[in-house]
Amino acid sequence: MSSSIISLLALAGKQITLYLGIFTLVAGVIGGLLNIVVFASLKTFRESSAAYYLTIMSIVNIGQLLTGLLSRIMTSGFDTDWTSTSLFYCKFRLYCLYLCTSTSMTCICLAIIDQYLATASRAQWRQWCNMKVARRLVLLFVLIWIIHNIPYLIYYDQIISTTTGKLTCINTNTIFVQYNIYG
């Protein structure tokens, strides 16, 4: 491939990331906020454990968009890499992104299990569908994901790249690199 085609494809990728990313970010945050408003304002949903899981999921999905997609838009569209300018953000970005992702997937799974148990014919299964259990399960899993993602805070660091000479945020532990690839 000629260098002009490669640079044209790189520019197209940046433009797609910028414009579709901004659209996805705005639509996602608005949609998440609307979900939260609906689930928090109606009494039927406030008393439903499945709606509680979906509310928490909406909150962490907004967190995903703000930590993952926003920084990608800034890097791709505006050449502003927050992970290379701030050691805190270098460590925090992936930690928060994976914490939100794991919590979001857990909440949708818990909502599905909750709905299954709510429609079960056995009374002892239906008793598991209540707000007390929902709050405890969300707290338990959030604590699990907080602990599970601690290596992102420890092993990500700002290093000067040998190829570009620029400060970059990378994983500095080879075992954790392998875990990320295969785990």
From TrEMBL:
UniProt name for this protein: G-protein coupled receptors family 1 profile domain-containing protein
Membrane topology: Multi-pass membrane protein
UniProt keyword Hydrolase, yes or no: no
Subcellular location: Membrane
Organism: Adineta steineri
PROSITE patterns: G_PROTEIN_RECEP_F1_2 (PS50262)
GO terms for MF: G protein-coupled receptor activity
Domain G-protein coupled receptors family 1 profile, first and last residues per copy: 31-183
GO cellular component: plasma membrane
Location, primary (coarse class): membrane
